[in-house]
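hi!! sorry for the late reply, been swamped w classes. u asked for the two structures so here they r. pasted raw, havent cleaned anything up. first the sequence of the first protein and right below it the tokens
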Amino acid sequence: MSADERPSAEETLLAACRALAPTVLDRTFELSLIPAPPLGETDRAERVRSWWEADGLTVESQSVGNLWARIREGDRSAPAVVVAAHLDTVFARDVPHGLRRAADGTVTGPGCGDDTVAVAALAALDRLLPAVTATPVWILATVGEEGLGNLAGARAAFDHPPAAVGAFIALEGNYLGRVNTVGVGSERRRVRIATPGGHAWEDATAPSAVHIAVDLIHAIDAVQVSHPAKTSRNVGLISGGESINSRARSATFDLDLRSESAAALDGLTAQVDAILAAASPGVTISVETLGSRPAGGIDSDHPLVAAAARALTEAGISPRLTAASTDANVAYHRQVPAVTLGITYGDGTHTEQEWIDPDAICYGLYALTRTIDQWPPSSRQS
């Protein structure tokens, strides 16, 4: 074979990614059968541990439930690249788990893209990266990324990492094409309202906890934020009352506040907290903080972002810079360069109809591998 006929390094890598994609998909199917609600990931973590050990990796665990494995030693004096995917899904244990193939070739089922396929893909990096890398490379399976998990796994990972962290890549299974550069921060509150209650007719002017909850929500919706960054507020759960003809003694609602900007989120939160603190006579309002996720980000021209964009372009995919709440939020808060990348295409996130495209897994593996291989930038300069 002549030099001109030999496959390029990129073609060789893509072929290796195609060869490994069926294993990633098989593991996705296997892992999908194991429920893993936030902070209830023990069974799923044990399955991942068994895979990694069978792959010849030495697995370290943290008390919170995280799993670590170093797949490249690199220069031990250099800070490591950490690639993380979260074990948990949004689905409770009583939801039917498992995946199915659709007629169009996609794979459908709870949690397949968020984040089961990404966890299944982590160990593939050990087969894809060059034997020698400029820095140590670790893979990390985290807990508590979803819902009220409050990024518990990522926080623990940065509190007690096995090595200094120089770059962090969070994997989301259905994000292929996205380079997430902004971590959307959030503040979550549970608001409880208590009143003496009464009869709907005889005590018609008595305060009703349900009415007060509605008034508070309306006031929160009316809050104006002067900061130009995108913000949102959402009441996802509400309950209360005793009967149709009673002035409600109690009501509860769960509130989610978000923004791309820490300053905007702080401003929104301060106004909302002031509204919640202004109780009327005969009314008790208690507020419980359910979670607090730091906002942050990385400059769009940062070398890590550029490496990810180049890698996607090499794979024939147009990169898009986006914002979301992921484990990378913690990295931003700790001043560590971070991006969030995807393994394949998909949609329907957080529904039982969630789906992924198995044919695109190879491109996600390629882009991830090439991103790591280009880091740190000084090691690739001539």
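now the second protein. again sequence first, tokens right under
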Amino acid sequence: MERMGTMKVFEATQIDRLTVRNRLLMAPVKTGFGGPDGTVTDQQIAYYRRRADGGVGAIIVEPCYVDSAGKEHPRQLGLDRDDQVAGLSRLVAEIHAGGARAIAHLNHAGRAANPKAAGRPPEAPSTMVCPTTGATAEPMSEERIAEIVDAFAAAAGRARQAGFDGVELQCGLGYLVAQFLAPRTNQRTDAYGGDLQGRERFAHDVVGAVLAALDGELPLIARLSASEKVPGGLESADAVRLAQQLKSWGVAALHVASGSACDSPPWYYQHMSLPEGANEALAQPIKQAVDLPIIVAGRLGDPERIEAIIGDGLADFVALGRPLVADPDLPRKLGAGEAEQVLACGSCLQGCLASVKAGKGIGCIVNPEVGQERDLEEPAAEPRQVVIVGGGPAGLTAAIVARRRGHPVTLLEQSELGGQFALAPLAPGKAAMARPLHALVAQATRAGADIRIGTKATMEGIAALSPDVVILAAGASPSALPIAGLADAVTGNDVLTGAAEIGERVLVIGGGLVGMEVAELLGHQGKTVTIVELLDEVAKDMEMITRKMTMKRLTELPVTIHTGTKIESFADGQATVLGPDGTATLGLFDTVVMAVGTRPNHDLLPALEASGMEVKVVGDALEAKQIMGAVQSAWKVARAL
């Protein structure tokens, strides 16, 4: 690839009167790091400073609510009170110190608001349930609408006071402004509903009020959905019309995404199963219709894709959200011609959605330092000889961090690098997960670890390396049920890798993540699949959006699910089960797939401990977890060596 520092991507560019050092922006990604009162925290400031230091042109800071009724998260940033300005000023100063511009993102979630965070029911143009939260919104009075228009203006004034270089207004993604625009979500009969002019009135009033508050000093960017991807929602023609109106009202640039927070989360979050480049294609009618700078966002972290989008004039800026969570140095690496060193995002949503929803704040499966930016990594006081057993995500992470701190590292892996993570790209809709796996392997290799593939770890072999510390990261193996007749069952891993020959009629025991992936894979192959799950619900260990999409796809396949059901025995191709309605017989089956979890591989642990060696156990060898937990456990151990 041509050296990217010479490309158009890294030209200083204007948004109105604002000069940005390059065409890469950080999209507004929720962190969950804010204070409970909407104030900025030191953790948040360090997080954004790290991204600014990585070379991005401007950071569009995560959504700030303009009124507490529009909160999406208990620890969301706010711009609804004057006492929040001082913290935001500190945040802006740190972003500036890193060389980037700072842009405030203003939003009211409307029907997508979290009633627990807001302390009240959601408010919206009309009464409607948000499937994501399950809450029903209350219709806003005209007096309340006027209050919210004023709230947007006041928030913009506070952003200006805090020193932001620009303001972005959320006019899409199924939030309040977009809810007024769409007939599906706006069933009003007053001045703010009815015909198109009425439905546009709220957007017009908000834009006008915000521009007045900015008083020509800061550019106003509007974010919109090129398509809401929901029946009856806003589509391309609506987006083009809105873009033209926004320009006529005085907006300086348009930030194009897709989806709706309530109604089409896979598009809103740009799930890994969606086609890459979808948003850049959706943005083209807007780009062609409106003479304004166009920002496009959504799974655009691939270096060649960035170059093509900017070089071919498909957009003027590329906004990167999750790619900069995964690797803050992505812009710097691209500019230096080091694209192969980028830690790639797999769009898995484990850390940037599931972790935030769980109240833990944003994280990342390939970057355990997210949220820990204040805790500077120090070189080791004294190098220690480190031997790592296992080359899965935990072992690779331990190797990377230990080498970075100056420790000599030898990693022993008896088969292939990647461990359980290597199976992820083999599952339906998860091909994108190959990128973060390859990135981890490449990073460990570049770090200088002595990686020995095809080497089984033994006590003799480990002792011969004279380690000061052994990190046991041997992962986990598939568990089995001690039930008569199941000795010939194959594992879910065997199905995903193609190592097992599978018949036409398949019984899958276990409805967790692996069981569901196996069932879908076999269903696509035309197999007839029956899933038996002991719990009352399947796929409980799947990330929320992945689960919903998987369940939807399974309804279109020859897959039957039995929950609350226990396997009692198996003989002559038939399973005797105990379910909610009593004992029953299922079958005939040609193949049984066992997908009932994993057991830690720590067979070496007793001997290692008995030898007197210092031993640390990490990842699935310590406790079966999803990849983010495995990576974080290894990171913590390696940081402490």
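hope this helps!! also noticed smth abt the second:
The mean pLDDT is 95.
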